Amino acid sequence: xxxxxxxxxxxxxxxxxxxxxxxxxxxxxxxxxxxxxxxxxxxxxxxxxxxxxxxxxxxxxxxxxxxxxxxxxxxxxxxxxxxxxxxxxxxxxxxxxxxxxxxxxxxxxxxxxxxxxxxxxxxxxxxxxxxxxxxxxxxxxxxxxxxxxxxxxxxxxxxxxxxxxxxxxxxxxxxxxxxxxxxxxxxxx
Length: 189
Prior knowledge:
This protein is 58% helix and 4% strand. By secondary structure, it is mainly α. The protein has one domain. The protein is elongated, with a radius of gyration of 32 Å.
């Protein structure tokens, strides 16, 4: 379930209460992505910081969702094992069927608890994908801000370089640049 500034997700462990992920910074950053179009050098650092902080918040949430997804997978696997080892034989006997791999798999698929756990796992995975998309959007906004700022940056921000004379215009032995490289030869041929 999603509200404007938070997401309520099921936990990987069915016995735990749902988790609430606060997306306040993320929503604020997403609302300001359009400002890249009319970016000024004075506004750029603030936007970069905002996008970066929201991205970091999403990475923390994704780490949490990864942990919950692993727990959900573990519970799905445990229930599948339980159905295969303990329940499928009884189900097949009730229907006068002999045990085979396909029929045991059908018993797993028919188990309502297994389906509920699988749905929980898929829900967590869907929220994980949603947050990955939002993180990618903020990453692109951050990169775009840096590129736009770089295009509008005065050249004075670049390292100081000395003006150089092209090599073809220089006379031999007249290079006075401190970076000329080699000294005058001490001997003549």
